[in-house]
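If it is no trouble, might I ask you for a protein's amino acid sequence along with its C-alpha cells?
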Amino acid sequence: MTAPFTPKTLRGAIVSFKLPDPMPNVIVFQYNPASLSRTLEARTSGGGEGAGEEAFRIAGAPNETIKLEIEFDDTAGMGGSDAVQPGGVAAQLAALEMLITPSSALVIANTILTQIGTIEIIPPQAPFTVLVFGRNRVVPVRIAEFGVSEDEFGPDLTPIRAKVSLGLKVLTYSDLQFTHPGHHLSLAHQVSKEVLAKIANVGSLDAVLGSGQRII
C-alpha cells in the first residue's frame, strides 16, 4: 500500500546580501520556531490625530515587528552526523552576529582614515537582510533585537546548544527607495497578502448581522 503523500516542510532562514553582490549568504534554521509573533502599527497621516477624512488616511505600509526564537543543537550533529562538530553551534551564532557587526577590515580602514585626519567617516551599512519563512513570507528586515542563550557546552567550552531570540523590524516600500531591491520585495509581499485577504473576505454580512442587514 502506498503511503499518503506528505509534503516536505520548508525550513526558515535568514538570507543576507552584500549589495550589489547578488550572491546570498543563507543561515538556515536547524529547527523552525514553534511560534512567531508579529506587531503591526498603522502608519497614519498626521500622526493619527487627523479629523474628518484625514482620520482614515494611511501614510504607508504599517510598521511591523517580528519576534521569533530559533534553536541550534549540535548534540546530535548539525550535519546529520551523530558526532558533535568542532566548534558546536558557534559558527551559526557567529554568522547571525555578523549581520549586525561591521567587518574588521572596515573598522581598520576607518581607523586609519581617522588617524590621517579624515573628519567625516560614514557609518558602515549592514547587509541587506531578508527573512524567509515559507513562500508567502519573504520580507526585508533589519535586526533590531538579538539575544542568545547558550545552554550546553562541549569539552572545549564551545556552545553545542543555543537559543537565539530575534526582534526583526520589517522594512517596506515606505522605508526603502524605489531602486533598492527590498522595495520591490516588500511590494510583492503586499500583493500576495492582498490575494490572501480576498480569499478571506466572504463579502456578506449575513453571517454576523443576519440575512438582509446592512451597516451603511
In short: The beta strands are 13-17, 25-28, 36-41, 63-73, 128-132, 138-153, 159-170.
